[in-house]
Amino acid sequence: MVTLEANGIATVVLCTTPFVKAADEQWAALAFPKGSVVAVGHPLGSMPLDQVLAEAEQAVEPVVARLVDRQR
Fold this sequence. Notes:
Largest sheet: 2 strands, parallel
Shape: globular
Strand order of the largest sheet: 1-2
Strand content: 5-15%
Number of strands: 2
Order of helices and strands: HEHEH
Distance between the termini: 18 Å
Number of helices: 3
Radius of gyration: 13 Å
Helix content: 40-55%
């Protein structure tokens, strides 16, 4: 991600909710803009498939919005 971002290619961190703070801190430590993290429910591994799919569906719009906005 660092290489992509350094070359002007927007990326997004996708993580489960307990890891948002750590992801934000790592992102900031690398001097990247805040708001590049999109969270999904936790824990994905033990969720029923329909709930995992719902989490994924809810994440699509924020991921696309961040990528499109950061490409401008």
